[in-house]
Amino acid sequence: MGDFILIFRFFLICVLLLTIPCFVAGEEKAADIGLLSIDVQPSAAPGSSVFGSVTAVNYGQMISMSRKVTFYLSSDEKITPADYELGSVHFSFLRPGETAHRELLATVPDTIPPGEYIAGAILGPGFSLTPDPHPENDVISQGTVTIGKTYTRPQDWFNEKIAEIILVLSNDERALRDLPSLTRDTALDVIALEHSKDMAHRGFFDHTNPDGEDPADRADRHHYDQSRTLPDGTSFYGIGENIVKIPVEKDVYGFGEIRNDDPYEIAQVAIESFMDSPPHKEALLLPAHEKIGIGVAFDGEYYYATQNFF
Protein backbone atom coordinates (compact mmCIF):
# COMPACT_ATOMS: atom_id res chain seq x y z
CA MET A 1 0.00 0.00 0.00
CA GLY A 2 2.82 2.39 0.91
CA ASP A 3 4.60 1.66 -2.39
CA PHE A 4 1.37 2.35 -4.27
CA ILE A 5 0.99 5.77 -2.60
CA LEU A 6 4.60 6.68 -3.47
CA ILE A 7 4.10 5.61 -7.08
CA PHE A 8 0.84 7.59 -7.30
CA ARG A 9 2.50 10.72 -5.87
CA PHE A 10 5.38 10.37 -8.32
CA PHE A 11 2.92 9.94 -11.20
CA LEU A 12 0.95 13.04 -10.10
CA ILE A 13 4.13 15.14 -9.91
CA CYS A 14 5.12 13.96 -13.39
CA VAL A 15 1.67 14.85 -14.75
CA LEU A 16 1.87 18.34 -13.23
CA LEU A 17 5.37 18.86 -14.60
CA LEU A 18 4.21 17.79 -18.04
CA THR A 19 1.01 19.84 -17.88
CA ILE A 20 2.28 23.20 -16.65
CA PRO A 21 4.37 23.92 -19.77
CA CYS A 22 1.24 23.37 -21.87
CA PHE A 23 -0.50 26.18 -19.98
CA VAL A 24 2.37 28.63 -20.03
CA ALA A 25 3.58 27.97 -23.55
CA GLY A 26 1.77 31.05 -24.85
CA GLU A 27 -1.07 33.48 -24.32
CA GLU A 28 -3.15 31.59 -26.86
CA LYS A 29 -3.43 28.75 -24.33
CA ALA A 30 -4.76 30.91 -21.49
CA ALA A 31 -8.13 32.18 -20.31
CA ASP A 32 -8.38 35.97 -20.42
CA ILE A 33 -11.32 37.47 -18.52
CA GLY A 34 -11.99 41.15 -19.15
CA LEU A 35 -14.65 43.57 -17.89
CA LEU A 36 -16.85 45.05 -20.60
CA SER A 37 -19.29 47.30 -18.74
CA ILE A 38 -20.60 48.28 -15.33
CA ASP A 39 -23.88 49.92 -14.38
CA VAL A 40 -24.80 51.23 -10.92
CA GLN A 41 -27.96 53.13 -9.99
CA PRO A 42 -27.41 56.90 -10.24
CA SER A 43 -28.18 57.87 -6.65
CA ALA A 44 -28.13 56.39 -3.15
CA ALA A 45 -27.34 57.32 0.45
CA PRO A 46 -25.20 55.97 3.30
CA GLY A 47 -26.80 52.73 4.50
CA SER A 48 -29.27 52.50 1.60
CA SER A 49 -29.58 49.66 -0.88
CA VAL A 50 -27.74 49.99 -4.18
CA PHE A 51 -28.17 47.92 -7.34
CA GLY A 52 -25.47 47.35 -9.91
CA SER A 53 -24.49 45.00 -12.70
CA VAL A 54 -21.31 44.08 -14.54
CA THR A 55 -20.55 42.26 -17.79
CA ALA A 56 -17.41 40.21 -18.44
CA VAL A 57 -16.05 38.27 -21.41
CA ASN A 58 -13.45 35.56 -21.88
CA TYR A 59 -11.10 36.79 -24.60
CA GLY A 60 -8.85 33.77 -24.23
CA GLN A 61 -8.72 30.29 -25.70
CA MET A 62 -9.35 28.27 -22.54
CA ILE A 63 -12.27 27.98 -20.15
CA SER A 64 -11.82 30.29 -17.16
CA MET A 65 -11.69 29.47 -13.49
CA SER A 66 -13.62 31.44 -10.84
CA ARG A 67 -12.85 35.18 -10.66
CA LYS A 68 -14.31 37.68 -8.19
CA VAL A 69 -15.42 41.15 -9.29
CA THR A 70 -15.69 43.80 -6.57
CA PHE A 71 -17.73 46.99 -6.99
CA TYR A 72 -16.41 50.31 -5.67
CA LEU A 73 -17.36 53.97 -5.43
CA SER A 74 -14.39 56.24 -6.01
CA SER A 75 -13.86 59.97 -5.60
CA ASP A 76 -11.71 59.95 -8.77
CA GLU A 77 -11.34 57.93 -11.95
CA LYS A 78 -8.65 55.66 -10.50
CA ILE A 79 -10.45 52.64 -9.04
CA THR A 80 -8.50 50.89 -6.27
CA PRO A 81 -9.26 48.60 -3.29
CA ALA A 82 -8.83 51.66 -1.07
CA ASP A 83 -12.13 53.08 -2.42
CA TYR A 84 -15.55 52.48 -0.86
CA GLU A 85 -16.46 48.83 -1.42
CA LEU A 86 -20.05 47.93 -2.29
CA GLY A 87 -19.87 44.17 -2.69
CA SER A 88 -18.77 41.46 -5.08
CA VAL A 89 -19.96 38.86 -7.59
CA HIS A 90 -18.23 35.87 -9.21
CA PHE A 91 -17.68 34.72 -12.80
CA SER A 92 -16.92 31.03 -13.15
CA PHE A 93 -16.14 28.73 -16.08
CA LEU A 94 -16.65 31.14 -18.95
CA ARG A 95 -15.95 29.45 -22.29
CA PRO A 96 -13.73 31.14 -24.85
CA GLY A 97 -15.65 34.06 -26.37
CA GLU A 98 -18.49 33.74 -23.85
CA THR A 99 -20.01 36.89 -22.33
CA ALA A 100 -21.72 36.78 -18.92
CA HIS A 101 -23.66 39.25 -16.80
CA ARG A 102 -23.96 39.46 -13.03
CA GLU A 103 -26.19 41.60 -10.79
CA LEU A 104 -25.43 42.95 -7.33
CA LEU A 105 -27.78 44.18 -4.60
CA ALA A 106 -25.67 45.67 -1.82
CA THR A 107 -25.66 48.29 0.92
CA VAL A 108 -23.82 51.61 0.65
CA PRO A 109 -21.20 51.94 3.44
CA ASP A 110 -22.35 54.10 6.36
CA THR A 111 -18.98 55.84 6.34
CA ILE A 112 -19.21 57.35 2.86
CA PRO A 113 -19.61 61.17 2.83
CA PRO A 114 -22.31 62.72 0.59
CA GLY A 115 -21.00 63.75 -2.83
CA GLU A 116 -20.39 62.60 -6.41
CA TYR A 117 -18.62 59.28 -6.94
CA ILE A 118 -17.47 57.25 -9.92
CA ALA A 119 -18.72 53.65 -10.10
CA GLY A 120 -16.04 51.08 -10.79
CA ALA A 121 -15.12 47.43 -10.49
CA ILE A 122 -11.96 45.36 -10.15
CA LEU A 123 -11.52 41.79 -11.35
CA GLY A 124 -9.62 39.95 -8.64
CA PRO A 125 -7.10 37.13 -9.07
CA GLY A 126 -8.39 33.61 -9.53
CA PHE A 127 -7.04 30.08 -9.21
CA SER A 128 -5.01 29.56 -12.35
CA LEU A 129 -1.66 28.11 -13.36
CA THR A 130 -1.02 31.05 -15.65
CA PRO A 131 -1.14 34.81 -15.02
CA ASP A 132 -3.81 36.97 -16.63
CA PRO A 133 -2.49 37.77 -20.13
CA HIS A 134 -4.07 41.23 -20.18
CA PRO A 135 -4.54 42.69 -16.66
CA GLU A 136 -5.42 46.07 -18.17
CA ASN A 137 -8.92 44.61 -18.76
CA ASP A 138 -9.36 43.92 -15.04
CA VAL A 139 -10.46 47.41 -13.96
CA ILE A 140 -13.41 49.40 -15.26
CA SER A 141 -15.16 52.65 -14.35
CA GLN A 142 -18.38 53.93 -15.84
CA GLY A 143 -20.99 56.43 -14.70
CA THR A 144 -21.43 58.49 -11.56
CA VAL A 145 -23.41 57.92 -8.38
CA THR A 146 -24.72 60.79 -6.26
CA ILE A 147 -24.61 59.98 -2.56
CA GLY A 148 -27.10 62.16 -0.67
CA LYS A 149 -27.75 62.56 3.02
CA THR A 150 -31.12 60.81 2.66
CA TYR A 151 -32.27 58.25 0.12
CA THR A 152 -34.88 58.75 -2.58
CA ARG A 153 -35.14 55.83 -4.97
CA PRO A 154 -34.34 56.88 -8.58
CA GLN A 155 -37.64 55.43 -9.78
CA ASP A 156 -37.37 56.29 -13.48
CA TRP A 157 -33.98 54.55 -13.61
CA PHE A 158 -35.41 51.51 -11.83
CA ASN A 159 -38.38 51.32 -14.21
CA GLU A 160 -36.15 51.40 -17.30
CA LYS A 161 -33.66 48.94 -15.77
CA ILE A 162 -36.52 46.49 -15.17
CA ALA A 163 -37.59 46.95 -18.80
CA GLU A 164 -34.04 46.27 -20.03
CA ILE A 165 -33.82 43.07 -18.00
CA ILE A 166 -37.27 41.96 -19.18
CA LEU A 167 -35.97 42.25 -22.76
CA VAL A 168 -32.93 40.10 -21.97
CA LEU A 169 -34.96 37.44 -20.15
CA SER A 170 -37.60 37.40 -22.91
CA ASN A 171 -34.95 36.71 -25.54
CA ASP A 172 -33.38 34.09 -23.28
CA GLU A 173 -36.70 32.20 -23.31
CA ARG A 174 -36.89 32.46 -27.09
CA ALA A 175 -33.28 31.36 -27.52
CA LEU A 176 -33.98 28.20 -25.49
CA ARG A 177 -36.50 27.29 -28.19
CA ASP A 178 -34.35 28.33 -31.16
CA LEU A 179 -36.54 31.35 -31.87
CA PRO A 180 -35.07 34.62 -33.19
CA SER A 181 -34.50 37.44 -30.72
CA LEU A 182 -36.97 40.29 -30.45
CA THR A 183 -35.68 43.76 -31.30
CA ARG A 184 -36.74 46.57 -29.00
CA ASP A 185 -38.81 49.14 -30.89
CA THR A 186 -38.92 52.70 -29.49
CA ALA A 187 -42.35 53.36 -31.03
CA LEU A 188 -43.77 50.25 -29.31
CA ASP A 189 -41.99 51.36 -26.10
CA VAL A 190 -44.10 54.53 -26.11
CA ILE A 191 -47.33 52.52 -26.42
CA ALA A 192 -46.32 50.03 -23.73
CA LEU A 193 -45.10 52.67 -21.28
CA GLU A 194 -48.24 54.76 -21.70
CA HIS A 195 -50.40 51.76 -20.84
CA SER A 196 -48.33 50.84 -17.78
CA LYS A 197 -48.45 54.44 -16.53
CA ASP A 198 -52.19 54.57 -17.18
CA MET A 199 -52.80 51.39 -15.15
CA ALA A 200 -50.65 52.73 -12.31
CA HIS A 201 -52.34 56.15 -12.35
CA ARG A 202 -55.98 55.07 -12.73
CA GLY A 203 -55.72 51.88 -10.68
CA PHE A 204 -56.94 49.29 -13.20
CA PHE A 205 -55.31 46.15 -14.60
CA ASP A 206 -56.62 45.13 -18.00
CA HIS A 207 -55.74 45.09 -21.69
CA THR A 208 -58.70 47.40 -22.25
CA ASN A 209 -58.49 50.73 -20.46
CA PRO A 210 -61.46 52.54 -18.87
CA ASP A 211 -61.94 54.48 -22.12
CA GLY A 212 -62.54 51.25 -24.01
CA GLU A 213 -59.21 51.24 -25.86
CA ASP A 214 -57.57 47.88 -26.53
CA PRO A 215 -53.93 47.40 -27.67
CA ALA A 216 -54.79 47.89 -31.35
CA ASP A 217 -56.72 51.08 -30.53
CA ARG A 218 -53.75 52.48 -28.62
CA ALA A 219 -51.41 51.61 -31.48
CA ASP A 220 -53.74 53.33 -33.95
CA ARG A 221 -53.86 56.45 -31.77
CA HIS A 222 -50.07 56.54 -31.86
CA HIS A 223 -50.14 56.04 -35.68
CA TYR A 224 -48.27 52.74 -35.44
CA ASP A 225 -48.53 50.73 -38.66
CA GLN A 226 -49.99 47.38 -37.58
CA SER A 227 -50.23 45.82 -41.06
CA ARG A 228 -47.82 43.10 -42.07
CA THR A 229 -47.58 40.05 -44.30
CA LEU A 230 -46.56 36.83 -42.62
CA PRO A 231 -44.01 34.43 -44.18
CA ASP A 232 -46.82 32.17 -45.41
CA GLY A 233 -48.30 35.07 -47.39
CA THR A 234 -51.27 35.80 -45.15
CA SER A 235 -52.02 39.34 -44.05
CA PHE A 236 -52.01 40.27 -40.38
CA TYR A 237 -53.18 43.36 -38.51
CA GLY A 238 -52.68 44.24 -34.85
CA ILE A 239 -50.14 44.06 -32.05
CA GLY A 240 -49.74 41.54 -29.25
CA GLU A 241 -49.69 42.48 -25.58
CA ASN A 242 -48.67 41.01 -22.23
CA ILE A 243 -49.29 42.78 -18.92
CA VAL A 244 -48.34 41.92 -15.35
CA LYS A 245 -48.96 43.55 -11.95
CA ILE A 246 -46.32 42.83 -9.30
CA PRO A 247 -46.63 43.77 -5.61
CA VAL A 248 -43.41 44.56 -3.75
CA GLU A 249 -42.31 44.32 -0.12
CA LYS A 250 -44.90 41.62 0.60
CA ASP A 251 -45.11 37.85 0.26
CA VAL A 252 -46.35 36.67 -3.13
CA TYR A 253 -47.41 33.06 -3.53
CA GLY A 254 -44.76 31.12 -5.42
CA PHE A 255 -42.20 33.93 -5.27
CA GLY A 256 -41.82 34.95 -1.62
CA GLU A 257 -41.16 38.59 -0.74
CA ILE A 258 -40.26 40.69 -3.77
CA ARG A 259 -37.76 43.43 -2.96
CA ASN A 260 -38.36 46.91 -4.32
CA ASP A 261 -34.64 47.58 -4.67
CA ASP A 262 -33.89 44.60 -6.94
CA PRO A 263 -34.82 45.28 -10.59
CA TYR A 264 -33.59 41.85 -11.65
CA GLU A 265 -35.91 40.09 -9.23
CA ILE A 266 -38.91 42.15 -10.38
CA ALA A 267 -38.13 41.45 -14.05
CA GLN A 268 -37.68 37.76 -13.31
CA VAL A 269 -41.09 37.59 -11.60
CA ALA A 270 -42.62 39.29 -14.66
CA ILE A 271 -41.14 36.73 -17.07
CA GLU A 272 -42.00 33.76 -14.85
CA SER A 273 -45.57 35.05 -14.62
CA PHE A 274 -45.80 35.30 -18.40
CA MET A 275 -44.35 31.82 -18.87
CA ASP A 276 -46.82 30.35 -16.35
CA SER A 277 -49.79 31.73 -18.32
CA PRO A 278 -50.51 29.93 -21.63
CA PRO A 279 -51.76 33.00 -23.59
CA HIS A 280 -48.93 35.21 -22.31
CA LYS A 281 -46.38 32.50 -23.04
CA GLU A 282 -47.78 32.10 -26.55
CA ALA A 283 -47.44 35.83 -27.21
CA LEU A 284 -43.87 35.92 -25.89
CA LEU A 285 -42.82 32.89 -27.95
CA LEU A 286 -44.79 33.55 -31.14
CA PRO A 287 -42.32 32.93 -34.00
CA ALA A 288 -43.91 35.65 -36.15
CA HIS A 289 -43.14 38.38 -33.62
CA GLU A 290 -40.02 40.37 -34.47
CA LYS A 291 -40.27 43.58 -32.40
CA ILE A 292 -41.07 44.34 -28.78
CA GLY A 293 -41.93 47.43 -26.78
CA ILE A 294 -41.60 47.41 -22.98
CA GLY A 295 -42.89 49.89 -20.43
CA VAL A 296 -42.75 49.75 -16.62
CA ALA A 297 -44.49 51.99 -14.09
CA PHE A 298 -44.80 52.01 -10.29
CA ASP A 299 -47.65 53.33 -8.14
CA GLY A 300 -45.87 53.00 -4.78
CA GLU A 301 -47.17 49.48 -4.14
CA TYR A 302 -47.30 47.66 -7.48
CA TYR A 303 -45.11 47.50 -10.55
CA TYR A 304 -47.00 47.38 -13.85
CA ALA A 305 -45.14 45.98 -16.85
CA THR A 306 -46.45 45.93 -20.42
CA GLN A 307 -44.98 44.12 -23.41
CA ASN A 308 -46.23 44.96 -26.89
CA PHE A 309 -45.25 42.74 -29.82
CA PHE A 310 -45.24 43.13 -33.58
UniProtKB/TrEMBL annotation:
SCP domain sequence ranges: 171-309
Disordered: annotated span: 207-227
SUPFAM superfamilies in the cross-refs: PR-1-like (SSF55797)
A Pfam match: CAP
Family annotation (InterPro entries): CAP_dom, CAP_sf
Compositional bias of kind Basic and acidic residues: 207-226
Protein name in UniProt: Allergen V5/Tpx-1 related protein
